[in-house]
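Field notebook, page 228. I keep forgetting to write these up properly, so this time I am using the form the group agreed on. The chain and the ligand, adenosine-5'-diphosphate, are recorded exactly as supplied. Prediction of the bound pose follows.
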Amino acid sequence: MIEMQDVWKTYPNGNAAIQGINVKIDRNEFVYVVGPSGAGKSTFMKMMYREEKPTKGQIFVNGFNLAKLKQRKIPYIRRNIGVIFQDFRLLPQLTIYENVAFAMEVIEAPKKMIRKRTLEVLDLVKLKHKAQSLPSQLSGGEQQRVSIARAIVNNPSVIIADEPTGNLDPETSIGIMKLLEEINLRGTTIVMATHNKDIVNTFRKRVIAIEGGKIVRDQYRGEYGYED
Ligand code: ADP
Ligand code: ADP
């Protein structure tokens, strides 16, 4: 489902962020990406949703080669990949309902379907009662649940989460993990970069460790393995 073949990424300023990565992630896997700051985790994640292009190598997601993807095909890929960020990235002037519905509007889904599906995912993240609130009226954990609702509303086969619990307290983080596990059980592959040692050591999954742009460890039901 996701495969990287000899992937390299050097930024225009010469930073060699990713240096020869080969990896396969199967449908329905839940994978943590760990490693020190500057290791290349974000670059690795960004290449999976085509925010960055590799300098060399192939990246297949659902059979599409992202390294070769034409500009006009990018929207098609984006609807099959949901992305979640540490800082939520909700649109502050839109309500919770509108933030989620917007993701369906951009792919021009039928109006009736937008309403039904938006309410369905807000119900799944237990925020239907906040549909008419603005993001600033919600706690951090609630805002992250909205961003998860937005990420899954178009039924993507993959979710890329970059530090999704980075701004949340431990208890709220556990709630977010339970939600992500539920989404994973419903059939969505999840790739999650994290510095959260407690989460990785509690909710055991496959762990891929990146250091200096290379994969240095890949363990099923692995542990965090760093002290921070
Ligand atoms: P991590 O997410 O593990 O902290 P990053 O992928 O953000 O690592 O960064 C890997 C390396 O690439 C670092 O040396 C970082 O400074 C560099 N880097 C990241 N983004 C850019 C960019 N847009 N331009 C130049 N260098 C970058
Ligand atoms: P947390 O404990 O996660 O920091 P908060 O104390 O920020 O949560 O919020 C607790 C509850 O109060 C949440 O349900 C949140 O939606 C609500 N809330 C927080 N700030 C506001 C606000 N400015 N207007 C309306 N409701 C709010």
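OBSERVATIONS:
- Helices lie at 41-48, 74-79, 96-105, 111-124, 140-152, 170-185, 197-202.
- The CA atoms of residues 34 and 209 lie 5 Å apart.
FOLLOW-UP: compare against the apo run.
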